[in-house]
Amino acid sequence: MPLSFASDLSRHMGRCAVSPPQDVDPRSRCIRVALVTSFPPSRGDLNEYGYHLACALQGDTRVGLVILADEVPCQERTSRFRVKRCWRFNSVFNPARLLWTIWKTAPDVVWFNIGFSTFARAPLAAFLGITVPAVARLLGYYTHVTLHCVFERISLRDAGLHCSGLYRVAGRVATHLLLLADDVSVLLPSLRSDLRRNYGTRAQHVQSRPHGTFAGAPSQQLSQSRDKNVILAFGYWGTYKRLDLLLEAMDEIVSQVPNAALVVAGTNHPRAPGYLESLQQRWLGRDHVSFRGYVAEEELPSLFAGASVLVLPYSSTAGASGVVYQACQYGLPMVAADIPEIVDITQEEGIAIEFYSQGDRHALASQLIRVLTSDELRRGMCSQNLQAAQKIPMSQVADGYLRLFRERVFASHVEVKIS
After folding, report:
1. Residue 293: which domain range?
2. Model pLDDT, residue 263
3. Distance CA 34, CA 53 (A)
4. Phi-psi region of 46 (alpha: psi -120 to 50; beta: other; left: phi over 0)
């Protein structure tokens, strides 16, 4: 049986099963959305983004939201969200467990907030997790994938992956599978262009949507708590996010800005265990360098509001950087390596970032010194980034998704009724 025919048949059967009674206008009811994402208190891939999507949808009378989240050691319950923790990181059984929960939940929309390593780091488990959107569509559910990275932009060397040829083939197959979803959204126009160029007609339904910014701190709080000498580095460290160059630049920075201090927040990337611990040993006793470790969601406002500049010492990235948008919501100036994805963000969103040539320690130090010593420059960048954040709040992004979902689902109900 051809795949397209099987897909159409399964979709018709599945949607008939959950469509409303014939005498009820489907547009008069809320739409049932199952959001598949890692979710706090999990520290999994994209858990913060999933949380803020859920916050933006919660309370909207047009949607009934259930979150299909990853299991965590401490199964905390929350009355704010309806959460079903039905999959486990690195498990090969995730497809069966997710599809079973989707069937029991009977949503109108299954929405995946994922990257290529959201479900697993282990290759087989990661690949099996990627198949779920396609299988859910074959079973008759409308499926939408918000894809945070494009495989062709992943630096396998930075990610610490060997057998690059095999991974490239697997990555293309995985991308083809993700493109079998009803709709796919990426967070930069250049990522959409990449997919359309590399995958042709298979990627014609890919859309570009803004990343969105989360709820920020009041401007008064920013002005009262900001310290003009604190450099913040925040993320998962050890792969394409590395601190070596920045730490080596600190002596030069402190020679020009004596009270400058570097705060390193975040944890080791799962592929780089022990990375931060090795740096802490090397920089033990340096008063101008401190390591904060993991920072919980509720502690982020004080972390960002207490810094004067965010630095992004990246060697590559495969998509939009969530840290950039977090910095915007707190009006934080930024200094970053001139990698294409971050340059794209500044052009698309009007975000203020000062760039240095990747790998150039002196250029990095020079840009940080320039930002730290110029009140006028910092104020201008702060104002520009706050304005950029206000243009693309997460509530607006979520509303765009919801309008698309309602259009797709209600159109399918009309098609079923006519047939």
Report:
1. 219-391
2. 95
3. 12
4. left
Mean pLDDT for 132-153 is 94
pTM across the whole model: 0.83
Residue 142 sits in the same domain as residue 169: yes
Total Cβ atoms within 10 A of residue 128:
18
- The per-residue pLDDT for range 28-51, each reduced to its tens digit, is 578 999 999 999 988 888 898 999
- Beta strands across the sheet bearing 142-147: 83-87, 63-70, 31-36, 109-114, 142-147, 183-186, 206-208
- The structural domain count of the chain equals 2
| Angle in degrees, CA 134, 269, 149, rounded to 5 | 35
Clarify whether residues 346 and 399 are in a common domain: no
Supply the CATH number for residue 368's domain.
3.40.50.2000
Residue 406, sorted as left (phi over 0), alpha (psi -120 to 50) or beta, turns out to be alpha
Condensed to tens digits (0 to 9), the pLDDT of residues 381-415 reads 999 999 988 888 899 999 999 999 999 998 765 44
Q: Is the pLDDT of residue 216 over 70?
A: no
Residue pLDDT, tens place only, 180-190: 999 999 998 98
Same domain assignment for residues 107 and 173: yes
Q: Is the separation of the CB atoms in 382 and 334 below 8 Å?
A: no
Residues 247 and 358 in one domain: yes
How would you classify the pairing of strands 63-70 and 83-87?
parallel
